[in-house]
Amino acid sequence: MEGNQSVSDPVYDNAALRRTPLYDTHIKLGGRMVAYAGWIMPVQYAGIMEEHQAVRTHAGKFDVSHMGEIAVCGPDAPDFLDRLLTNRIAGMLTGQAVYSPMCAEDGGTLDDLLVYRRGIDDFLLIVNAANRAADVSWIVQASSSAGGPAETRGMQVSVTDCSDAFGLIALQGPDAGNILAGVAGDAPGKLGYYRFLENVDVAGVPCLVSRTGYTGEDGFEIRMPSECSIEVWNALPAVPCGLGCRDTLRFEAGMPLYGNELARDISPLEAGLDRFVPMDKPGFIGRTALAASLAAGVPRRLVGFGMTGRGVARHGYPVWSMDGSCRIGTVTTGYHSPSLGMAVGTAMIESPFAGDPGLSIEIRGHLVSAVTRSRFFYKRKGKDAT
Amino acid sequence: MKILDHLLYTKEHEWILADGASARIGISDFAQDHLGDVVFVELPAIGARLNAGASLASLESVKAVSEVFMPVSGLVLEVNTSLETAPELLNKDPYDSWIARVAFDQSLAEAGLMDAAAYRAFCAAGEG
Question: I need a surface site. Which of A35, A122, A338, B109 has the fewest CB within 10 A?
Answer without folding.
Answer: B109
